[in-house]
Design goal:
- This protein is mostly helical.
- The protein is built from five helices and no strands.
């Protein structure tokens, strides 16, 4: 969508240019994935780190920091439980990804 917004006004609403841009993006990602060795393993490493951080850990940390004194004991302990699950899941996923990368290198 960002690339489509850079098009001149007379081509911005053209469906043809939208399809060309999106197809070019998909093909460029395909070329990168095929040329970089261990691309999938690197993506799994990044995904295991960032997915848990963005989906579980950061929302709970922000919730706890915004509503410091205005939450119940249950809400606070449940957020801490979610943070712990996110940290453990992230650690396991990262460890597994690193082991797989090391296995592929040797």
């Amino acid at each position: 969508m960002s690339l489509e917004e850079l098009l001149p006004a007379n081509r911005a609403k053209s469906r043809f240019w939208s399809i060309v841009i999106r197809t070019g993006l998909v093909l460029s990602i395909l070329v990168v994935a095929l040329t970089i060795p261990f691309f999938g393993l690197v993506m799994s490493l990044v995904g295991s780190l960032l997915t848990m951080l963005v989906t579980l850990i950061l929302p709970c940390v922000c919730f706890l920091s915004i509503l410091k004194g205005n939450i119940s004991w249950f809400q606070g302990s449940f957020c801490v439980l979610i943070i712990l699950v996110g940290i453990i899941s992230s650690a396991i996923g990262t460890y597994t990804s690193i082991l797989e990368i090391i296995h592929q290198l040797s």
